[in-house]
Amino acid sequence: MYLFWFLFFWILILFTDMIRRYAFLAWTVILVIPVLYFPFWLQHDKITYFFSLKFPLVLLGAVWFLMLRYTRLGNRKWPLVFLYSLTIINILAAVYHDYQSGYYLNTIAGVLLIFSFPNFNHIEIKGEYNKKELTWNIPFFWIFCYTLWNWSFCYSNWFLERKSMALILLVSIFFGIIKRKRWLEMRYYSLFLYMLTFYYDITFFRELHGPVSLNKELINFFQYTSLVCTFLYTICFYVNVFKKFKKKELL
To answer: Looking at the 3D structure of the chain, how many domains does it have?
Structure first.
């Protein structure tokens, strides 16, 4: 079983990186495969409303990154604003789910992440018309706080899939370390690939986790940790914003 998770981890990393590097592969995987899967998902009785909302948002985010890099959209401002808004909506979907489930500490942490998320002015696009590189200067501490918050969300709401959820978050933090400015792009691609594979056979993935009972003390621990880290980062973020504002006033 551990060998499976190890291989799945590196396969996700490999395919995510290949999607970013090769346009033809990216368009094929991100557009063609979901179309082929669609009739299967319509008949799937274990697809939740959250997946029905989340997967189209993740798919749209992945497609939008491709559009920005390989079409003229990358030369305009409004598509960057749309990408920023789409990312906020993705986080809000999980925040609302936490709120509905009664996990209020994690709800607050998610809201703090939204208010401290670097906006579209931190996006930079370089390169030729069909070979552009998009970077988004997101601080690693924000990525770390996001990962903690997301793990708390996954453990609390999707306990039966906790190991696979932890794995996809490890993939996320891996790219946050080695490709920080491309982290969000890699996050969309890797999450898309994970959802594609996971929801192909939910029962198979759940059986790999084994019958372990939900630990409420751990839920509280994860949520408190997530909230404290996110709160500290948000304070640092706005202190920095205030300093920059005062500096401009002095000039």
So the answer is: 1
